[in-house]
Amino acid sequence: MVGAGINFGVDLAKELQQLKRERNAIILAHNYQVPELQDAADFVGDSLGLSYQAAKTSADVILFCGVHFMAETAKIINPDKRVILPDLDAGCSLSESCPPEKLAQFLNEHGDKNYYVIAYINCSVGVKAQADVICTSGNADKIVRAAPADRNILFVPDQNLGAWVMERTGRKMDLWQGTCYVHVEFTARSINRIREEYPDAPVVAHPECTYAVRMLADEVCSTEKMVTFCRESPAHEIIVVTEAGLLHRLSKEIPDKTFIPGPTDTCFCGECRFMKMNSLEKAHDALLNMEPEII
Ligand code: 13P
Ligand code: SF4
User: Fold this and answer.
1) Nearest-CA neighbor of 264 among 205, 207, 221, 220?
2) More exposed terminus of the chain, fewer Cβ within 10 Å: N or C?
């Protein structure tokens, strides 16, 4: 029975590749996707890398294995291409923390501030439409440094990433009070505990983590930069404080090192329930039926 399950997965993976050729599609997968989808993808990366790939592809169809705002971004970049998302309900707690109408109301009520709005890419198209510029965790400090010096900045929706960029650039910003429900689960206590267990292992953390966790990290960066950090670090064991899906890519690309998932204080597994809504089966069916489509 188990063997049958494995064959089913292999067949499905093969069928997905076949469909990809027939549709002239490209499969893009975020670093947090389940292993089977990362393995099926033409490109696996962070939000910035995926946006670049979406911008340069000549494929007719983009099967986007990630969450809704990421597929939406691919559609904004490629209005003439068909963008398919395996599960339309794959949302994001950060994106949800900043509804477009709340942002519009806030900007209206604070018109005197004449805000220059910097939107972290983890937001809906309705929020992006109100922003002056979009950034990702991979280029946020560059974007903030380039902001007009004479304007007040409102950074939406992640308060932790915003605070981290303020620390790095020295630029004062007003921060929308959104968070990622996954990254705030890591605490100073849970990181100190794992550090005691692996005293020689450096800690690399995502900037969506809280200040207390960032302070304990040896490096804070986007998921793509985490891969580079892990490759270049002389350490053999590395504690990785982000969504657990990244460990598949790390173990695949850097097999001689051991990656320890960042622990939490609860039984929370460190997996984003939205990212994990996509599956090989749903990806296959989405490309077969050409839906759900992002319009
Ligand atoms: P990256 O752009 O660093 O991959 O982050 C995306 C994300 O959703 C983090 O939770
Ligand atoms: Fe959103 Fe957090 Fe999931 Fe990333 S890990 S998609 S920020 S909820």
Assistant:
1) 205
2) N
